Amino acid sequence: MLMGICIMGFGGGMYNAAGVGSGPRDGFMLSIADKLGAPIGRVRIITECSVLVLGLIIGGPVFIFTFVFTFIQSPIFQATYLKLGDFVLKIEYNQNENRKKKHLS
Q1: TM segments (predicted)?
Q2: Which of 14, 40, 51, 72 is 20 to 30 A (C-alpha) from 79?
Q3: pLDDT exceeds 70 at position 105
């Protein structure tokens, strides 16, 4: 169970860092984190917990791993997003430099 949560955090950070499009929830959390200057992991935890409480209020099933998921997956998402985001930017920069060199020669 914990391995699956870690893989989901890594996968979410990876596809968002690659810029291939984030879903509405991820886009919302990344936008709020950017606008407030808050850490992505903290914004994710607050958002996920808010939705979790709302689900509990309307009678949805909430188990211990629902909380565990929120508090483990969010920091992994943040770390992966930031590390791979920097990596993607470096690759894009190098590709643009190579294009400029080919264009000038």
Answers
A1: 51-72
A2: 51
A3: no
